[in-house]
Specification:
- This protein is α+β, with helices and mostly antiparallel strands and about 400 residues long.
- Helix content is about 40%, strand content about 10%.
- Strands 7-11-12 form a 3-stranded antiparallel sheet. A two-stranded antiparallel sheet has the order 1-2. A two-stranded antiparallel sheet has the order 3-6.
- Strand 11 and strand 12 (about 340) form a beta hairpin.
- It is globular and about 55 Å long.
- InterPro entries: Pectate_lyase.
- This is Pectate lyase.
Length: about 400
């Protein structure tokens, strides 16, 4: 009896120590909220009359170690259809009134992938479920994954908003990372990421099918211009897959910034087939050929002005600089391949100086992102096409 009692006490003590250590370890764990940065910045710094809630002065925030509290916020914002609205801070410590206002909108189907929305929420919930095993996070994650699958077009692409709405949000959208965010999420599941170990076989099969269709659609949308494959547009027509207008200053064109993430994704595919290899080779050659030299873009202080959207205290200009590294414009005109700009009147412009100050300062017209693909290309090329370096042609 004595030994039995002592053994029970020892087991109980050991369990308490184990529980304490697990609890302590969990309290010091954190999950990055960086993927929510775009939406967070919009909530705090850009006026939007359509917001469900607006931040209160000095809105308090959870620490990254408070991942269950952040995940609870994510569940508050998740709509009944499985998707999320955009442009809120998931780290905000919401007031009871704010929570009530958010929860009351669950029936609304204005849900999106724009501004790194939905796919980032799904991945966060998967990580929290892996740490906690609380079924509410698993349920929210699976509901989100099913939303992604339902939102996919039969041709493999995804719209910016689902259910479908009027206007350019119906287009297949690379802008702001929407398409690549979705397909990289699916890739994690296909590649058996441990954060998704809980996913059942039936859902995995649906995900694998959606992933393959999404990959095939990427290859179909690559722009063939003047007889040569180049890169991709920010958005493509959901039926024809051709480059399409989005906002009034976002013309159909070859879009270097958005195309980089597409190329990096394709480069990461193991044992690429001939179509994938050709897509990468063509896009890398395009990046090389579309470099702009001796050009630097600088921001400088300027007289404050109030636009419809925010106060502007700076201006931007292009400077000739022989020491500047290569740079690219965000847009290149189809057929002519001239650097392209635009404004809220949708007029084609050919220099940044012609763009209004509000759009000139409020949009990234130049980019250095293609350099990432060019740097990665050498190792990729040696591995998969050792006898065909397009950068030497």
């Amino acid at each position: 009896m004595f030994n039995s009692i002592n053994s029970s006490k020892l087991l109980a003590s050991a369990f308490c120590v184990f529980s304490f250590l697990c609890s302590h370890a969990q309290s010091n764990s954190e999950i990055s909220t960086k993927p929510f940065t775009d939406g967070t910045n919009h909530w705090y710094f850009i006026k939007d009359k359509t917001n469900i809630i607006n931040p209160i002065p000095n809105q308090p925030k959870y620490a990254e170690t408070d991942y269950t509290k952040i995940a609870d916020n994510i569940l508050y914002f998740q709509r009944d259809n499985g998707g999320w609205p955009k442009n809120y801070d998931m780290k905000a410590i919401l007031t009871p009134q704010q929570i009530d206002s958010v929860v009351k909108t669950k029936y609304i189907e204005h849900t999106t992938f724009d501004n790194e929305t939905t796919y980032t929420h799904i991945h966060y919930l998967a990580q929290v479920y892996t740490l906690t095993k609380d079924p509410k996070y698993k349920d929210g994650c699976l509901k989100g994954i099913n939303f992604v699958i339902k939102a996919q077009y039969s041709n493999g692409g995804w719209p910016q908003y689902f259910p479908l709405e009027k206007g350019y949000s119906r287009h297949i959208t690379f802008n702001d990372g929407a398409y690549m965010g979705i397909i990289n999420l699916l890739k994690k599941i296909v590649n058996n990421d441990p954060d998704y170990a809980f996913i059942d076989a039936k859902t995995r099969k649906k995900v694998a099918n959606a992933y393959q269709k999404g990959l095939d659609c990427i290859l179909k949308m690559q722009i063939k211009d003047n007889g040569k494959l180049t890169a991709w547009c920010q958005q493509h027509d959901e039926i024809t897959l051709e480059p399409a207008w989005a906002r009034k200053f976002e013309p159909p064109s070859i879009c270097n910034a958005e195309s980089v993430d597409v190329v990096l994704f394709l480069m990461d595919i193991e044992n690429p087939n001939e179509k994938i290899i050709n897509a990468v080779q063509s896009a890398v050659k395009w990046f090389q050929d579309s470099k702009i030299y001796n050009t630097r873009v600088e921001s400088f202080a300027a007289e404050e002005m109030e636009s419809k959207y925010k106060k502007i205290k700076n201006d931007v200009r292009v400077v000739h600089d022989t020491t500047a590294p290569p740079i690219w414009t965000r847009y290149y005109e189809l057929k002519t391949h001239r650097p392209l700009f635009s404004d809220r009147d949708s007029e084609f412009l050919y220099s940044l100086a012609e763009v209004s100050r509000e759009r000139r300062t409020g949009y990234a017209w130049y980019t250095d992102k293609p350099e990432k693909a060019l740097k990665k290309y050498l190792a990729w090329q040696k591995k998969w096409v050792p006898n065909d370096d397009v950068l030497k042609k």
